Amino acid sequence: MYDMATRVRVLELLDGGRSMNSVSKETGISRAAIRAWRVRVEPLPRLNQVAPCGVPDDKGAYAYLLGLYLGDGCISPHPRGGHHLRIVCADAWPGLIEQCRAAIKAVRPQDSVHLLRKQGCVAVTGYGRHWTCLFPQHGPGKKHDRRIALEAWQREIVDTHPWEFLRGLIHSDGCRITNWTVRNGKRYEYPRYFFTNRSEDIRRLCTDTLTEVGVAWTLQARSGNAFNVSVARKASVALMDAHIGPKY
């Protein structure tokens, strides 16, 4: 029998690109056990704190951070207890890195936040003892391999702060680009938004919220799979520009 911390560590190694053989040799855990863990994903245990978490005071910041977490975030246990929340942001968007850091501090002002710089990206990392309670969607393995659903209290926050939630999703797994086409020999350019995620549940959270705020969207296939949520209609792009805008 292996504890949850060992299972999480093994799955993180696999998610980082390591082969099953190399992980098995390093850890001494059989490939059969590792293979079973990848199929039957269990959630990380929540901590039983003396004081329960409760709903965050800054609900707008939480809605934004929830969108970032669902796109580019993960939670991992710390050897001395507690957990790390990590949101990976590209170096190209220093404004996004600062917004992410500020959101973590707004949600958990008493917890520490660090920037771990890697090649081409920054992992904005918050350490604390409440992240597993604040993000019950956590678990080892990839998000698209398990069910992602919001708790009732999260749903209420998203319903109250839909644009903050959408901004987090777009800032993590989305973009604003300029497309072009040729009509009657003339080149026309037009902006559009994309959100790309392999999880059907997370895409549905995005599209349901877009519909709620009056944004028209379509699904576009990539390699035969409809992973892309596209917003291209002029009025809807203008609405997105007013509330979200491009990364910076």
List the helices and strands and how they pair.
Layout: H1 4-15, H2 20-27, H3 31-39, H4 59-72, E1 73-77, E2 83-90, H5 94-107, E3 112-118, E4 121-128, H6 131-134, H7 152-160, H8 162-173, E5 174-183, E6 186-196, H9 200-212, E7 218-222, E8 225-231, H10 234-243
Antiparallel strand pairs: 1-2, 2-4, 3-4, 5-6, 6-8, 7-8
Characterization of the model:
The chain has 248 residues and is of the alpha+beta class. Among the domains are: 1-40; 169-243, Roll (Endonuclease I-creI), CATH 3.10.28.10. The chain has helices at 4-15, 20-27, 31-39, 59-72, 94-107, 131-134, 152-160, 162-173, 200-212, 234-243; strands at 73-77, 83-90, 112-118, 121-128, 174-183, 186-196, 218-222, 225-231. The chain has a four-stranded antiparallel beta sheet, with helices on both faces. Strands 5-6-8-7 form a four-stranded antiparallel beta sheet. The longest helix is centred in the first third of the chain and has 14 residues, at 59-72. 30% of the residues are buried.
